[in-house]
């Protein structure tokens, strides 16, 4: 009985092996000719890039045409429109520094060299009197006379007033220039500017003084 079982098992194994075994076929005889891999077409130019480049070129051309037509007789586009005041500055400067304790006046050349520098202490005021309105007015009148005495008036072609601070002397010097004391200096003034210091943030302010 065991021999018949072993024989049937052997035959079944041979059938399974025969079914699974198949001769290999030559690829060159059965498979068709392989086509070369497709080549990707060249990428087309991005329309957005071409649009931006055309806009940029049109903008440059329009800007050059606009600025070149601003000045009569200008045919070439302008490269630099920045005005350099320090290269063409021919104005004398009168610096008016007025704070609550004193007033300082400084007349300088166009290259910032000082010609006259005076304060209320130079004309006889002391201590709290230096910060008064009258001291500032007399200081401005003294400066006008000093300019004439030193012969500086003929060489001053243009004069710029530069204010700094909001003390009583600020208004006093302005009144003196507009009065009879400044009648010879007033026609030379071509510009007014304010260089008062402004604090953005910074350290804590000093505690205000309280009396009583």
TrEMBL record:
Cell compartments where the protein resides: Mitochondrion
Keyword Transferase part of the UniProt annotation: no
GO biological process, one term: translation
InterPro entries (UniProt xref): Ribosomal_uS11, Ribosomal_uS11_sf
Gene Ontology annotations for the cellular component aspect, listed alphabetically: mitochondrion; ribonucleoprotein complex; ribosome
Keywords for this protein: Mitochondrion, Ribonucleoprotein, Ribosomal protein
Gene Ontology molecular function: any one: structural constituent of ribosome
Main location: mitochondrion
Name of the protein described by the UniProt record: Small ribosomal subunit protein uS11m
